[in-house]
Amino acid sequence: LPDKPSIAVLPFNNMSGDTSQDYLGDGLTENIIAVLATSPNLFVISRNSSFTYKGKAVKVQEVAEQLGVRYVLEGSVQRSGEKLRVTAQLVDAVDGKHLWAERYDRKLDDLFAVQDEITNKIFYEMHVTLTIGQRSKDWQKHFGDPEGMRLHMKGFDRFLTFTIEGHHDAERIYGELYKKNPDGGMGNLDMGWIHWAKIVMRLTDDPMQSIKLGREFGEKAHAVMGDGNSLTLLAWFDLFERDYESAIENARRATEISPSDGEATAIAGTVYRNSGKPEESA
């Protein structure tokens, strides 16, 4: 299996019995595959491979084995007049366990808008279930919309390369997220980390200005979200300015707010060591 969650999206079944309505399920399935495939955190089987199972009664375990995935998303579409009902469920093919299921009832006044809404909800739920877990639930309200979460994850993937090209890509993508919602917590937090990276990677001609801007983004993010991650960012800027007392305080508060966050704990350890208190980094 791939080294990240692997998933196949089977063609959603048309429950109306009218083959002329197949386009509803087919269109939704294609939309879901296309959007899930944009995530760097998922391995998604292509549309051509998934659609070979259209109209066939197959076991989830067989599909998973043949396509080399662990998870299978399946569902159905049923139309009644101008009403649309969509059901979807995620199955772990290893043990057959149902990990998630949902039903969506919508009016068909705008088919594309309905497809996009349901697709975005499924994209979000797949990441809650398969990748970043509860943290995505905490983040969601600070993105503004599901597209915001997609931008964050796409940018984060480039950010983690720690290459000049990756940094520029992340800065551009995070900039899009920030422009979409300049008052949102996550957009500000991501921009703060961009300025941190400029200093660490020596990509700035004015480190003090980068610290100033990064701190402003971090403070605004924390004011909005009250999270631990923004405090670890601020602790880094404190270290850069050799304000060890403030760095230790921000690191301590970060671990209190997010005690199970390994990233916050690790960064706190770095802060303690660099602040001359290595005994507290253990």
TrEMBL record:
SUPFAM superfamilies: TolB, N-terminal domain (SSF52964), TPR-like (SSF48452)
Classification via Gene3D superfamilies: Tetratricopeptide repeat domain, TolB, N-terminal domain
Region (Disordered): 255-282
InterPro entries named among the record's database cross-references: TPR-like_helical_dom_sf
Name of protein: Uncharacterized protein
Natural source organism: marine metagenome
